[in-house]
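#onboarding

Welcome to the new folks! Below is a worked example of what a typical request in this channel looks like: someone posts a single protein sequence, and someone else replies with the predicted structure as tokens. Don't worry about understanding the tokens yet, we'll cover that in week two.

Example request:
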Amino acid sequence: MKLKKIYISGPYDRSEQCFNRFVDLELMLRKTIKDVDVINPSRIFYQMPTADQVQIAKMSARLIEDSDFILIMDESDE
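Example response:
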């Protein structure tokens, strides 16, 4: 069975609080849904402190394109 990929979408501001919010949701998804690959962009972008908004947007678009589902966080107005 192929793993389904879920991309977590939401506002990202590089703060530790924001990072933790994404990670908490990622962990909850992994616990409650079997056979899922959760794509947590904050884990990637947190490790890329010099990336600008354009680079982040381009990478996000590629990650979303590779996903089966997009989960939009409640706090998001996207």
